[in-house]
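== Folding task for one protein ==

=== Format: two labelled lines per protein ===

==== Paired sequence and structure tokens ====
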Amino acid sequence: MAALKTPWYDKAVEALKLNGKGERTQQAYARHVRKLIEFYNGKDPDRITEDELKNYFIHRQDVDKWQPNTMRICYSAIKLFYLHVVQRDWHLLKVIKAPREKRLPSVLSREEVDRIL
């Protein structure tokens, strides 16, 4: 989680570890929190309002066209950060949810099956 260079870093690492998150998840979550802070030009996360957070999510979804899986990780990262590190109990954090992408399984053609066998 070395990418997150704020006074909140140690608290964030501790919250992620206590939450059982692995190293790659820690890195992904740190990246999303960093993107939020960068979006608001380095604004201290403690000073970002609930409305600003809502606008950030809407921007990422509607303007940047982030995919549902990316939005799900973003929501989870920022939700954990604000609930457990910044300690905000905002309504938004209780209602945000990205739908899971439904992907069809890959199906092999007859030729591919014949080559395998």
